[in-house]
Amino acid sequence: xxGPFRYTSPEPPKSxxxxxxxxxxxxxxxxxxxxxxxxxxxxxxxPLLTATxxxxxxxxxxxxxxxxxxxxxxAGVSLANRCPFCVHAxxxxxxxxxxxxxxxxxxxxxxxxxxGHRRLLAWGKDMSTAQPFPAREAPEYVxxxxxxxxxxxxxxxxxxxxxxxxxxxxxxxxxxxxxxxLARTVRRELRPGAGLALLDTAGAPPQWAGDTxxxxxxxxLRTAAQLGADLLGDExxxxxxxxxxxxxxxxxxxxxxxLPDRAERPGARLALLAARAPYRITDExxxxxxxxxxxxxxxxxxxxxxxxxxxxxxxxxxxxxAGERA
Length: 326
Prior knowledge:
Blueprint lengths: L17 H13 L6 H4 L5 H16 L5 H14 L3 H13 L3 H9 L6 H11 L12 H21 L13 H10 L1 H4 L26 H14 L7 H12 L20 H11 L6 H7 L6 H30 L1
């Protein structure tokens, strides 16, 4: 492997056309990061790319809830999912909000000084607990958390752990400088709903999102990601769904946990790892499944299917927690 892409070879962003080019343009303007590999890796599937971008834009970037608070939640999710790329990314974005001490505190694994930030970080790590934000802000906070449960898994499965060339993100000065370069973009007020015009799929919005752009984007992502189940036989697709449904939505996959045999059921193994432990996917796991006629498009969709199974299991904890409070 050379460069950030572990198993795919996306087309260069400068050669993108159609809706893929439109996503890159909106991403550069609204996110401030041109050609972000987190999204370029999904470009083999425009429906996945557009829905992932729309969900992140409408939950994390737009809306009225605190950007700092949402970044804290996203960092908590990324810590729980063991995604160093994403942890560093949210550290940089917290620097962009001006919360320099908070950014470095979370990166070190320490507890924030401010009680509200502590509660948000803890909830990001375990969404089965009480929601530490007003109900009116739930679509943004929940959408952010679930977006990064999905994105973390895509990143850990398909990208290297290095966020910046040469691993420069390990230096505080680099993190701080990168954050300051994004400060103006982060502080802009974005119009909610602008990401929805790019969507290639549609699906029913979840109850927690109500009638918001976040719900529309989430429904589209769920529809696009579930298409990956068609790459498995019926038995393996059911196995992955049921295996993930039996998880508590929080506990890491034990090292001793039994996995489908790589030679006999490589697709089920890959999808289950994408759901439960994407950082454990190996070259051998991918090579065992990715034989003709499977392509980059197929691999991205299989990973997305596993990732969405995990997202839906985490989402179920929201309903359980809401039922306990009722």
